[in-house]
Specification:
alpha/beta; 6-stranded parallel beta sheet; single chain; about 40% helix
Length: about 210
């Protein structure tokens, strides 16, 4: 579904001028530790039209609309939703919280973007470890992997494996891709502890009750 700014819940304008094509941002409703909402705000401040992909039409979606974003409510694991969200889009930023279906979501987005065509850039939020946990190193004998990685680590974690596969999918897709292999963002809860505590106190009655005891 799309926001109230559009005449139909699954319709976008067919003729958008290049400078007015919305930039699609997934994971836009993320709060603590989320980068997508920061991206939305930065792009809007610079005058770019933004389409924010969210999972639920709740107060966070309302906040995005208030900020000036077009809100698309859908499921990253539903190809019809993903295809509808991409309509008229030339640039997109893909981010998703930890999920066993992460690579599914990336693959669906890549497939829909390739089918649509005209994508100028697919920005994928990956992770720092992809810079050194490469195919050659991760397929070396186990003793070498342990010696190189240190400790008992010899294989990717499930999330590291998901990001590696996601990067391969995007490479195979032929889409113009930028993989951001970030280490830590200032939006990380560890970097915004006061905000984390304030958010927890405001949104979780049990925590408020404990704090008041």
């Amino acid at each position: 579904m799309l926001s109230e700014q559009l005449p139909h819940p699954h319709r976008t304008e067919d003729t958008l001028t290049p400078e007015r094509n919305p930039i699609l941002i997934t994971g836009a409703a993320g709060e603590i530790g989320g980068v997508s909402r920061t991206m939305v705000d930065m792009l809007l401040e610079q005058g770019h039209p933004v389409r924010a992909f969210v999972r639920q039409d709740d107060e966070r979606a309302h906040s995005l609309r208030q900020a000036g974003a077009e809100v698309f409510v859908g499921d990253l694991l539903t190809i019809a939703d993903v295809t509808a969200a991409l309509k008229g889009v030339r640039r997109l930023y893909f981010s998703m919280s930890l999920s066993p279906y992460y690579t599914d979501a990336v693959s669906l987005m890549a497939a829909a973007a390739r089918a649509q065509g005209g994508i100028e850039v697919f920005v994928n939020i990956s992770e720092y470890e992809q810079s050194f946990m490469t195919f050659d190193r991760m397929t070396a004998p186990e003793e070498e992997r342990r010696a190189w990685l240190g400790g008992l680590i010899a294989n990717w974690s499930p999330q590291q494996r998901a990001h590696w596969v996601a990067e391969q999918v995007l490479d195979w897709s032929g889409l113009p891709t930028v993989n951001i292999r970030g280490a830590m963002f200032v939006e990380n809860p560890l970097m915004t502890w006061p905000k984390t505590v304030r958010w927890a106190l405001e949104n979780h009655p049990r925590i408020r009750k404990l704090a008041a005891a």
